[in-house]
Structures are given as C-alpha cells and as structure tokens.
Design goal:
Elements (H helix, E strand, L loop, with lengths): L33 H14 L10 E11 L11 H15 L4 E12 L1 H6 L5 H10 L7 E6 L11 E3 L14 E4 L15 H10 L62 H14 L5
Parallel strand pairs: 1-2, 1-3, 3-5
Antiparallel strand pairs: 4-5
Protein name: Peptidase M43 pregnancy-associated plasma-A domain-containing protein
Keywords: Disulfide bond, Hydrolase, Metal-binding, Metalloprotease, Protease, Signal, Zinc
Organism: Hypsizygus marmoreus (White beech mushroom)
Length: about 280
C-alpha cells in the first residue's frame, strides 16, 4: 500500500547561508540517506506507473504562502510582482519537462515564529503547513520564510518527495528563503532557481551528487556522478573519474543561479513517472 510508505527526508543541513549574504553557499535541507533511497527506489519500481505517451504537458497549480515577520520587504513580505516573476522562471525551467505552472492563490501570514524557525521537522513548520496548505497531491504549496534561527538557519530551501505524499499529505510542499526569488537580496541565489531546485525534489529528483562517486547515485543514467556539491560555476570540474565532467549546469546541483540551465532527458523521464506514480499526474 502506498499509504504505508514514508521516507525520512529531513535529516538537517549545515548552516552556511546567512544575511547579509557575504561569502555564501547554497544549502538545501532536502536529504535522503543511501539506505532510505534504496528502499524508496525498490518501492518505486514495484509500484511504478509509466507516464502517458500521448500527454505532452501538465498544468499544475501553485499555492503561495508568504510567511513574514512584519509587513516590510526585508521582513519577508514579498510583493506579487516577485511571485509572478518567480512563476515565470519556473515555467521556463520546466518547459522541457512538460510541466507548466499557474499561480492559483497567494496568502500572507504575519508570524515571526514561523518566519524565523520553520525548518525540516520543527514544530513551527508543522503548524505552518497544517494551517496554510491547500489542494491535493498535484498542487505545489510554496512557503517563503526567513530561515534566520534554529535548525533551519542558513537554508535556502527544502522540499518533500512525491513518495512521501500518501503517508504525510499535510507535510507536502516546498519551503524557500523569501529573498531567493527574482529581485531578492540573496545573491548569487536571487534569480529564482532555489524554487526550481526544490520543485525538482517535489517532482521526484535527487541531488546530482547523491551517493558521491560510488554510492547509489541519483537514479538517473545521464547525470554524471559527482563526489560532492559544486558551488559557483566551476567549468570543467570532474570529481568522479570515468563518468564525465560534473553536471554543474544541472538544476539539481548547488551552483549559482546563473550557472543553472538544465534538466536532462533522464531526469525528465524520471519526474514524469514519479508524478504519475505518486501524484496522479500524466505528462
């Protein structure tokens, strides 16, 4: 039964991102161990739904929840214009995957506690999602927060995988740093690809460096193995011998937003099947 299966997605992440954004590195709080990945992939293969060969595109709703500490931009109260720009970035990035996104609703909540302390597995993120989440398995809920303190301090974002939805529907969605949206102050991560990256997890993709050079990998054959995350835009980096140069331009690595440009055909195939299996979406 799908409902009996759950992943331990959120085991924390090091705090390497802080305002005022001097000498920063991307930090994603979405994590799965090799052992849990093996279990997840076994379940996926046993329950796999192949995507619809005749469907070319799926349109998915986004429900955006602005969680701010006050009504100022610096306090997380981002305007509609930045959210609109972010959805445009997402649509461009996912065009090759066959997913288009529409903003189905935006709400704003003033809560300094949620803004500051929402993080993987915290009581604040649980309360926030229970109070605000909308829609079903195929609806992307985005929560923009501050990540200023506690276990989430320094994160750019985190997400749930499709396979966790049946047993933890309320937890489903993506949480991002408010200033990572286009025009935000989190340079070099302010072109909108934090959400592109976290939405990649939400459609079923792992980090390109999952498992390093000899681990289980990201379960996609056309992303070369990578020993560790890449930062900046290190052209020619080859951290695992024999597999090809590292996929530094892939949205599922850790490079600067300006360096990220692509999903591979293999990632597209995987995301389509993950979405069909766990979210009931045919692409």
């Amino acid at each position: 039964m799908l409902a009996s299966f759950a992943l331990s997605l959120f085991l924390g992440a090091s705090s390497v991102f802080a305002s005022p954004f001097a000498s920063v590195k991307r930090s994603c709080g979405t994590y799965i161990s090799d052992a849990d990945l093996i279990k997840a992939e076994k379940h996926f293969q046993e329950n796999k739904v192949e995507p619809n060969d005749f469907a070319t595109q799926a349109t998915l709703n986004i429900y955006w929840h602005v969680v701010a500490k006050d009504t100022t931009l610096s306090g997380g109260y981002i305007p509609d214009s930045q959210i609109t720009a972010q959805v445009a970035v997402l649509n461009k990035a996912y065009a090759s995957v066959g997913i288009s996104w529409v903003l189905a609703g935006t709400d704003r909540t003033i809560s300094a506690d949620w803004y500051n302390n929402a993080a993987p597995s915290t009581s604040q993120q649980t309360a926030m999602k229970r109070a605000l989440r909308k829609g079903g398995a195929a609806d992307l809920n985005v929560y923009s927060v501050g990540f200023t303190s506690g276990s989430g301090a320094g994160l750019l974002g985190y997400a749930t995988f499709p396979s966790s939805y049946p047993s933890a529907a309320t937890d489903d969605g993506v949480v991002i740093l408010f200033s990572s949206v286009p025009g935000g102050t989190a340079a070099p991560y302010n072109l909108g690809h934090t959400l592109t990256h976290e939405a990649g997890h939400w459609v079923g993709l792992y980090h390109t460096f999952q498992g390093g050079c000899s681990g289980t990998g990201d379960s996609v054959s056309d992303t070369p193995p990578e020993s560790s995350p890449a930062f900046g835009c290190p052209t020619g980096r080859d951290s695992c011998s024999g597999g090809g140069v590292d996929p530094i331009h892939n949205f599922m690595d850790y490079t600067d937003d300006a360096c990220m440009t692509e999903f591979t055909p293999g990632q597209t195939t995987r995301s389509k099947s993950q979405m069909a299996t766990y979210r009931g979406v045919s692409i």
